[in-house]
């Protein structure tokens, strides 16, 4: 009997410990601050739902007509995480800043802001600012917490700005604010009385959302001044757990999807090989893009690089790039060859002006015969010595000048001239139209599209997904590919071109989810043939450890790797299929390998876990396999889901990529 009691006691203690552990994990999972690499808090997740707002640090000019603020690609921040604490260091004008953001409990974070002034400057102040999205905070009431008996004195402004200032800037000294709308509640408290300015939304003045400024420094800054304040933010609100219905249409197949591709530009000889090996061995890579090291292929205009290579005199960087292309070709992966750095003789140097947005140098028109033979010779030698016939050639981001700069007209002329030369040499290599730096620079491809003589040399259209992928802009690229009747490729896929400066961001949920959301949106809207990840090397790596960015832990795949691998479950050659979702905050794309009867649906859920139903599956589909990738699982397969009369029900997990694949 005593033994039984002891067993019961042990079991009770064990159960209690388990409950505490589970509760601890659940509490941590229920609340997570989302911090951009430059220090802006984008919101706090509660039970998977993002309670959205955006913070920033701002230095405001004395008359409030201009400001400098933390933002993407505006500074050179340093980002690091230690457990539940994120630290960002950066600078604004002559102020260095440190921001420490800590998860405290469900829906609550603490932000410590410190400004250090390097030299005296006139300003209205240095502020911690919160931008309230109108979708969640429209009509919100704002109440002061412990307001002071007297309000802060407004800074001096020039006479012509008096009316603007008096109507827009009304500083109040208080300990914080409670902001309440029908769907959201945000409470901000400060560790000491603080001057606060509220600017209401005013589209005519370029203020789309209500903005709240909390002064860390009020008024002018003095040399060597240090100011620090601590803010506690608490959020709550409605959590959307409404059931989701997806409707698949298998009767209208669209364009072909090959799968996920990758860039293999070699830059890190110590850490690249292990990442390349892992990705090629563990992911279904369907397209590859490699560098042509042009400046090493043909450094001296007065030599014949093809003759030199045939004589065995070839630069090691050129050999390694060609071996990389060969490795891809041996796996039947089509290869795009792109040139970055030109040899000095081939360009007009000294034309770069980054302040005016001019990067790189234009090709020298007087050297075009040599340029065409040089580029063509590389592709000829790649085929005859390494057995690789490149699918396409491009200059990388020549719209911007990374590192050859062209106008749209020059781009069209090169397509005709180089395309004709390659054809005359018996190469099947086509030209890649665009290969643009961003989605926004679509006008760059218009001259070639409007010139029928270019069309026979164009193998595909390409843009890079770093910036500007709005629905309207993506539709332009989709229409261009349809009009030209060629595939659309995302030549470089990712979201932040400056992320190499703060590599810890690659493992953050905010980066991972933004990237996979973008990919699914692009696939759905553009019906791209492939997205080529930048990169499947140690640069912007989807792997961690192994010495990458100084991380000496064992090499391991990150959530970004699993996202790509899971998208890659789609059988190559599947057709895009229309699919509709009746709830917001979910992105989805569907494919059908109609010949083999395999249907694949990918869904990114940006909110809470909810029950889901899919309809429209073919009658011969009896089961669905389900895979989930999130912060804890990498392409984890769950129990198979039964299908009846084209209908299936399943759980869509919070903040995850979920994939369904049909089984006969």
Kindly describe this structure.
This protein has about 675 residues and is an alpha+beta fold. The protein folds into three domains: about 20-155 and about 165-235, Beta-galactosidase, Chain A, domain 5 (Distorted Sandwich), CATH 2.70.98.10; about 240-255 and about 575-664, Immunoglobulin-like; about 260-570, TIM Barrel, CATH 3.20.20. It has 13 helices and 39 strands. The strands form seven sheets. Strands 4, 5, 6, 7, 8, 9, 10, 11, 12, 13, 14 and 15 form a twelve-stranded antiparallel sheet that branches. Strands 17, 30, 32, 33, 35, 36, 37 and 39 form an eight-stranded antiparallel sheet that branches. An eight-stranded parallel beta barrel has the order 18-19-20-22-24-25-26-27, surrounded by five helices. Strand 24, helix 10 and strand 25 (about 460-465) form a beta-alpha-beta unit. The longest helix is centred in the N-terminal third of the chain and has 29 residues, at about 1-30. The chain is globular and about 80 Å long. The two termini are about 55 Å apart. Mean pLDDT is about 90; it is low at about 1-30 and about 155-165.
